Amino acid sequence: MLINKNITDFVATTASNEPVPGGGSIAALAGALSAALAEMVANLTIGKKKYVEVEEEMKSIVPALEEKRQQLIDLIDKDATSFDEVMKAFKLPKETDEEKTARTEAIQEGTKYAASIPLETARIAYSIMEYSTIVVEKGNANAVTDGAVSAMMARTAVLSALMNVKINLGSIDDEAFVANMTKEVNELEALAIEKEKEILSKVVL
Predict the structure, then answer these.
(1) Which of 20, 70, 121, 132 falls 20 to 30 Å from 79 in CA-CA distance?
(2) What is the CATH number of the domain that holds 161?
(3) Please, are residues 55 and 83 in contact by the beta-carbon 8 Å criterion?
């Protein structure tokens, strides 16, 4: 499993000629780091007299960020294996018309699944930006840049994951599926870019 590698080995594997981890897994990692940074700022705020008024709010967001962090860590490996079904489908027999039809259907279903995983990453990563906003606005001022980096990493995770959705959509014949996914991709992309600008505008150094 990729998530059990140490940082040095993970980066080295990424740099190798192995197909995974690729951009989708890296997007999930960026999202997990985004959640971790927001969580860190919240933890650095809890217990400080200066921030007693927001302590309960900070305590309340930590479990949510822990959950999102773990979801994104899981998606590192999930993304790496999501294309396995497609590769298996390509190896199916194609001697008869029935076999060709079954093979094509399997490839299409596998590609739909491969597109759905990075979309899940993008959704979760975008949701973290609300927490980035909270820690930037109300968290420990000494860690405001960490909150800002949380927002930047979340935006990167969203846009990177959506790139992987788009490339898979190009191989899917189901027009309704592609249209629905494309609509959400475009919306998430615009929202993440705008949200990052909004959060960074509140960072005073």
Answers:
(1) 132
(2) 1.20.120.680
(3) no
> Whats the size of the chain, residue-wise?
205
- List the one residue out of 76, 162, 71, 159 whose CA is nearest residue 116: 162
Distance CA 9, CA 12 (A): 5
**Token pair recorded at residue 134:** 């909270």
pLDDT for 49 equals 96
Work out how many domains the chain is built from and give that number.
1
Number of Cα atoms under 13 Å in the Cβ half of residue 91: 6
In a domain, 58, yes or no: yes
131 within some domain: yes
Please tell me the distance from the alpha carbon of residue 92 to that of residue 70, in angstroms, as a whole number: 35
Give a yes or no: residue 1 inside a domain.
no
The pLDDT tens digits of the residues spanning 46-100 come to: 999 999 999 999 999 999 999 999 999 999 999 999 988 888 999 999 999 999 9
Tokens at 177, concatenated: 């599926």
The per-residue pLDDT for range 88-115, each reduced to its tens digit, is 999 999 999 999 999 999 999 999 999 9
Specify the residue for token string 């399997």: 106
